[in-house]
Structure formats: structure tokens, C-alpha cells
Write a structure and sequence with these properties.
Helix content of chain A: 25-40%
Distance between the termini of chain A: 42 Å
Largest interface: A-B, 34 and 34 residues
Mean pLDDT of chain A: 90
Number of strands of chain A: 6
Shape of chain A: globular
Radius of gyration of chain A: 18 Å
Strand content of chain A: 15-25%
Oligomer: homodimer
Number of helices of chain A: 5
Order of helices and strands of chain A: HHEHHEEEEHE
Low-confidence stretches of chain A: 1-9
DNA sequence: CTTCTTGCAAAATTTTTGCATTACA
DNA sequence: TGTAATGCAAAAATTTTGCAAGAAG
């Protein structure tokens, strides 16, 4: 009984909270929570899924809603990004934009495995702090940043090689 | 008399050295140092120029070589990147690839001004070190990285606003 | 001379938009 | 019932490639 949110007497998962925030955002903008948007949100906020492209999201969404179009997923993910519940990443190797749920209090950066493409998240308070100092030194205020480490697995053979 | 390179009795600037290395790379691969490649190298390694797109490089190159084609600049910059004398950057805001001379011993990352688009270079040993530690912790060896800080000028009005 | 390079134009990728139709609220 | 959303297809924006003609070594 450690996370009774909204005083409603039941627990909302992190991702369920993001889905709620998305619905509230739509309402506040006079936009509609359509069947398609619900399916896309369900797919996107299904836990345990990491960084996915529009085509991956589309394919999964079409399982539940066969006529789903690419443009709908595209525009919905843009709305999610605008509302702050999703983050866009353009990694250097793929050339594709990947989307990730913007979990609260979970800021992190990424290590991209050059062997298998796997994406590992990391967080380092020391780097964050120095970054603020560096920006200030040059007369800037940090708004956002992108820090990606492209790396090889240390093990003799990458255990995730595909 | 502090930098007599190649034992030739005259000084080569940093960028002239990169141009030499590019010529050596071409020779070692059995490729040719054509008039076009020379013009592009001259333009690209002209000092004091920072991060430029293919179209900017093309426009400048055409001043000296009117019939220069985009594809030639594209392929030449790829050769420069492969040979290590140029670095490619795809910043998050532009969607364009920018090229920069890979000056020796001058590793740095970038602060991108969200107000005027200006790109400022920074280097921070502390961040570099922590990055190595972080990667090792997760079982990786750093090959390259990308660290970009998107920021606003602290002054009331950005002095570089355009 | 032979191989590599050029410049054009076309292909490939990925993102973005226009518009007639459909569906929310 | 009016405004917003959808899905298609076409447009944009950028990168990449094929190929015939021309240049380099």
C-alpha cells in the first residue's frame, strides 16, 4: 500500500499515469481521444518495451486495429511528444526516430551497442552536474541534452549478438 | 622554431596537415587527388570555418569550380570521414549533416544555442572520465560518443540572435 | 590505356502535409 | 452537427546510387 495515486484507492502504474496525462492533454487542447489514439497509447505504454520506431508501433497497433495508418501513428506520437509523455530519439546509427515513454524521475542517457544494436540506459549524476557547470561557463542555460555512448561489449563475443 | 613537421624545414598548419593526410589516404587506397577533391579540401580546411553542410560546401566550392556537383562533394566528404580527417555531425535541430575538420588532439563536444543556432565547442575531462567508468560498469568499451547540450543564452537577449 | 571520378538524374529513405471522408464529443 | 481525426497518396527533404562520359596516373 505504498502508492495510492489520485486518492482513488487504487494504484496506477507509471505508464498508466502517462496515459492519463496524455488524455488530459488532449482534453485541455480540445482534441479527441479516438479509438486509434487509444490503441496507439496502449501499445506504446505497454510496459517493458523500450525504444520503438513508427513502423514497429504501426505493426503492433494494426494487430488491434487493422486499418491503422502510418500517418495516424506519426501524428499521435507527435502529440505524445508535444505533451511530454514520450521522448523522441534519433540515434546516429539507424537514421530512424525511436520513441520511448517519458517516465517521471527517470532521466537517463543511452549506450548503444555497436555489435548488436542493443540500447542500454544509464544515468550519472556527476556528468549531469558537470554539464550544468560547463554550460554556465559558456554563458548558457541547459534546456535539454543528448548524450550517447557508442560502444562494444567487453565480453569476447557479444552475448546479445544477432 | 617550435613545429618543424615532416623534417621539411617549414611549418604546416593543423589544417594543412589534415589535407596532407587526406592526400596520403587517397594514394594508399589507389584513389586520385582530382581537381575537384583539391577544391573541396581547400574549401573545407580553410581555417576559421566551423560546421558546414554539404550545400554550403558545394556553394563555396562552385565559386572556384563552377561545374562542381553535389554528389562529388557528398562522396568526397565521405572519403574524408572514412580517412578520419573530417567528422560528421547530425544535430537534433537541423536534420542536416554538418562536417567539421578533425583537428588532432582537439576532441570536443557541442553546445547548440536554441536561440540563434550558434554552435559552441566544449571539452570537459571530468565528463570524459566518468563516461569511461559508466560504460565499463555496464560491460562496454567506449568507441565514440555524442554529447550535445541544447541551451539558451543567459543574457537577456541573445547577442547572436539572427 | 586502364581505372577511377564526375555530374546528372533517378532511387531510396524518412518525415511531413493536403484533402476528401469518417467519426468523435 | 460542427470540428477534429483518419487514411491515403502525394510532397518534401535528405541521402545514396547507376551510369555514360571525361579525367587522372
Amino acid at each position: 500500500m505504498d502508492d495510492l495515486s489520485q486518492g482513488q484507492g487504487f494504484m496506477l502504474s507509471e505508464t498508466a499515469r502517462l496515459k492519463e496525462r496524455f488524455k488530459e492533454y488532449l482534453a485541455s487542447e480540445g482534441l479527441k481521444y479516438t479509438r486509434q489514439r487509444k490503441v496507439i497509447a496502449d501499445v506504446f505504454f505497454k510496459e517493458g518495451e523500450g525504444h520503438r520506431s513508427l513502423n514497429e508501433l504501426l505493426a503492433t497497433a494494426q494487430v488491434e486495429y487493422a486499418s491503422m495508418g502510418y500517418a495516424t501513428v506519426y501524428r499521435t506520437m507527435k502529440l505524445m511528444t508535444d505533451s511530454g509523455v514520450a521522448l523522441e530519439h534519433k540515434f546516429a546509427d539507424t537514421g530512424l526516430t525511436l520513441y520511448e515513454p517519458n517516465l517521471e524521475g527517470d532521466h537517463h542517457d543511452h549506450i548503444i551497442c555497436l555489435t548488436c544494436g542493443r540500447i542500454v540506459e544509464f544515468e550519472d549524476e556527476g556528468i549531469e552536474e558537470r554539464q550544468e557547470v560547463v554550460a554556465k561557463t559558456y554563458g548558457f542555460k541547459v534546456r535539454k541534452h543528448r548524450h550517447e555512448i557508442y560502444a562494444d561489449c567487453i565480453k569476447p563475443v557479444c552475448e546479445f549478438r544477432h
